[in-house]
Amino acid sequence: MRRFLKIGAVLAIVVPLAVAQQSRIYNEGDNWTQEITGSLASVHNLRVKIDVGSVKVDGGSQSGVNYVIRNHSFSSSETRARHDFENYKISAYVRGDTAWITGDWQGGRPHKFNGEFNISVPRNIEDVKIETDGGGVSGSGIAGRINAESGGGNIRFDDIGGPLDAETGGGGIDVGNVASDVSLHTGGGSIKVASAKGKVVAESGGGSIVVMSGAEAELETGGGSIQVERCGGKVKASTGGGSIDLGDINGGAEIETGGGSIRLNSAKGPVRAETGGGSIELMGVPSARAETGAGGIDVKFVAGNGDHSDSMLETSAGDITVYLVPNISLSVRASIDVANGHGIQSDFSEIRVRTEGGDYGPKTVSAEGNLNGGGPLLKVRTTTGDISFRRASR
Questions:
Q1: For 77-128, what is each residue's pLDDT tens digit?
Q2: I want to staple 136 with a disulfide (CB 3.0 to 4.6 A). Which of 153, 183, 235, 283 is the partner?
Q3: C-beta separation of 94 from 112 below 8 A
């Protein structure tokens, strides 16, 4: 009797699922499609784990989980197509508070076969986890957490309320609006984030990274360019050789590239910028440490409200231009190591220029002075190039 009750309990779970799911096979030109539709009860979590195909999950007003799966066999033979469909075992079930949809390929390596998993969930679902061996992953309108992983397909999400964690072996990642933290990783594709209210962590093996808006950002690529339009906190950006272009940063910035140029529109905190050979342009910064192997440096310093710190600008071969607002307090020290044909120009009488050496031998030029009584040290040095101190408007 107890065994009979257990069997009955299992049937009570399985039978409603069988009634809710339908399958049909139809021909599309030279190809064949298997369409599986079904629904599952309302749950707090969704898990999707498939071997073949793409996954799309969208949130809506419905109470349960609805799915439409289309498997495509690119074979003109119906017999071969049905054999492919039999090899791809699709399962959909509920276990506890989690709905599971799985696709298990049980044949050899799939050839001329693909799948599309379109899943609708309640918008207030708490947690969604998606895994596919190679297809793309996308979704929108989900209030909870998202965790997505693809062996190499593209990833796209928008209108996500919880934290987003996405990884692909080589595809691109495109993210719209996320109301929390974002963590993105790709083996070589590009990454774009429109808006994140939390911290953005993005890493690519070699593609470009673009962040339009974020609360804080930590970005790294093996060789592509990096662009940040605005950020509510500090930014850390690193690339093996591409350019870095930062807009308005409401915090400090750490910027490093193997050889590309660096540009920053403004920052509220201290800035460190290093490039192996490109130019550096930092506008509207309270302090900066900038160094390039062979490029020019342009920096505009503004009076900061936070902690005062020393600044250093250095290039092996290039000109350095410093723009200073009238109310800034600094102690300036500048030098040109090989000054033949080069010099130091200043709009400030407080900065005194001194030249050493003759017309036929090595010549060095240095300058020093205190602006508005002096303050944090600003050290400027170029091996060969001109140095200019210019008066800037507020």
A1: 899 999 999 999 999 999 999 999 999 999 888 778 999 999 999 999 999 9
A2: 153
A3: no
Residue 197: CB partners within 8 Å, gap ≥ 6?
A: 178, 179, 180, 215
pTM higher than 0.85, yes or no? yes
Distance of CA 332 to the CA centre of its chain: 38
* Listed residue (232, 319, 314) closest to 267, CA to CA: 232
DSSP code per residue over 223-286: SS-EEEEEESS-EEEEESSS-EEEEEESS-EEEEESSS-EEEEEESS-EEEEESSS-EEEEEES
d(CA 146, CA 259): 36
- The widest CA-to-CA distance across the chain, in whole angstroms, is 111
Burial of 358 from C-beta contacts in 10 A (0-12 / 13-18 / 19+): exposed
* Contact between 131 and 49 (Cβ < 8 Å): yes
Nearest to 158 by CA among 206, 116, 212, 97: 212
Task: Give alpha helix (H) positions in 23-148.
Answer: 78-87
Is 71's pLDDT higher than 90? yes
Distance CA 290, CA 299 (A): 9
C-alpha distances in angstroms, 130 versus 38, 140, 153, 359?
18, 13, 13, 72
Q: How far is CA 296 from the centre of its chain?
A: 28
Give which of 189, 212, 64, 82 is closest to 125, Cα–Cα. 64
Residue 302 CA: distances (Å) to CA of 250, 373, 393: 14, 16, 10
**How many CB atoms are located within 10 Å of the residue 72 CB?**
20
H-helix or E-strand spanning residue 288: strand 288-292
* Residues 114, 53 contacting (CB under 8 angstroms): yes
Q: Tell how many helices (H) and how many strands (E) occur in the chain.
A: 2, 36
Q: Check residue 306 and give its pLDDT.
A: 62
Q: What is the pLDDT of residues 274-312, one digit of tens each?
A: 999 999 999 999 999 999 999 999 999 998 766 679 999
Q: CA angle 207-128-189, nearest 5°?
A: 10
Phi, psi of 160 (to 5 degrees): -115, 130
Nearest-5° angle of CA 271, CA 274, CA 278?
125
Strand 320-324 with 344-346, pairing: unpaired
Residue in this structure with the two tokens 């190499």, named with its chain if needed: 152
